[in-house]
Amino acid sequence: MKAIGKTSKQREFESEALPHADLLYNYALRMTNNSADADDLVQETFLKAFRFWDKYEKGTNIRAWLFRIMKNSYINRYRREAKEPDTVDYDEIQNFYNTIRDESADSHDAQDSAFGNLLDDDIATAIADLPEDFRTVVILCDIEGLTYEEIAEFLDCPLGTVRSRLHRGRSLLRTRLLKYAKDRGYAVEG
Amino acid sequence: MNCRQFEEQITSAVDQYLQGDDRKEFYDHAFRCPQCRKAFERERFIKTLLQRRLRIVQTPHEISHAIVAETGSTDPDALLHSLQAPSPRSHRTARFFLAVAAVFVLGFLVVSSPSPDSSPLSAQRADVIAQSAAMYAGLLAGWMKPQISSAEPEVLEAFFEGKTGFPVHVHSLRDYTPVGALLNEASGVPLAHLVYTSNGKTVYIYQTCWNTVQDGRKLKIPDQVKKTLCAGRPYIDESFDGRTFILWTEGRTLCGAIARMGQQDLLSHLPLAEASLPGAR
Ligand SMILES: [Zn+2]
What we know:
The structure holds two protein chains of two kinds.
Chain A: H1 8-16, H2 21-32, H3 35-51, H4 62-78, H5 90-100, H6 103-107, H7 112-116, H8 120-128, H9 132-143, H10 148-155, H11 159-183
Helix pairs in contact in A: 2-3, 2-9, 3-4, 4-10, 5-11, 8-11, 9-11, 10-11
Chain B: H1 3-14, H2 20-32, H3 34-53, H4 61-72, H5 76-84, H6 91-103, H7 120-126, H8 128-141, E1 148-149, H9 153-160, E2 177-186, E3 189-198, E4 201-209, H10 210-215, H11 223-230, E5 235-240, E6 243-250, E7 253-259, H12 263-269
Antiparallel strand pairs in B: 1-2, 2-3, 3-4, 4-7, 5-6, 6-7
Helix pairs in contact in B: 1-2, 1-3, 2-3, 6-8
The structure holds zinc ion.
The site of zinc ion has 6 residues of chain B, from α1 and α3.
């Protein structure tokens, strides 16, 4: 039935979906911090997208649609064995983290130059170790350069949530990078 | 604009979303208040660091070619299934426990009698000391999320009500107030976790079923620790890199406390009966 040449579905898919491969690939790469995993995740996402292509509503945000497929694939693959609470109020977490942040994080403040010595791999690892929700917004905003509006649409959440997760995510990342810098013996201001 | 309002605007400012008066007020405050300015510069620095160091990479050509080939093949679903085959184990989980093991390299973390049928990972998970240390690290680092946030002991007690099979005690700690709690399980045994704070310092409390720990099949504890606890005394260890770990029992509940402070300091906050306190460990 589809032996010769490309079907219209294939042509449409290739011209509308495939141009967003870089967005997905970079997200996958930073989420997993592993290029083999990123390769698999991107392929799986596009194959699913192709399979459900008729479910995609033309004219809506295709990047958001593809992103959600990838996010689901990611969750299915990497959901942790330990059961996590699934109903979590992020404002509460925000308050909670602000209250209980590690005392040690405050006691050594670093010169920004200490970060200069860190390897790109250290930075990538620190991102990959962030809790998933914080990791996602940091990758989408700071690495992929998406706007708050687009991230909110991707995640189907309010703008305020994007902003507060970014704030918290960057701050957690800073704490981790400081720790790496200190572990490596780089000058960290007392 | 006060410092609290400034803090709420930092992220918008870093991402250049502030306009007009908001923007002006923000930078006026940053100019006048060195502490707030520092906080703003820190967040902006992290963003710049990521932009500079982790550039966008192009999708490898093999991947795009593979996708085109696969969507054009007669059976893309078969390929999809092969890609979805579950990975052997969650990398993050493994890394998490490895990190915890590295942090708490302690003699007593080693399970006293290795059970023949379990991997080191599961043995470690069954160890209540390793478990509570892991939770403590997880809460501080953000791996673990509180399910309820409240300073009211009654609210926290109600949260655990009927869910554990052993009484969860929301203690009154001297000088410390509760901030949140969560409940999870290991090998089907409920574990209760409570966090208290005071002036930016944290005391973490772990509780589980003492009978189950004594039984030793689902949760384990080193023999020497069990002996101390069975004698009605608390088990105290200060070798956690500036943190102190104290275990004690209260009826059917095994309680553990961890905090970054010395043992006398931590003991002075805990509601342990004077009589049970030893001169030393
Ligand atoms: Zn200020």
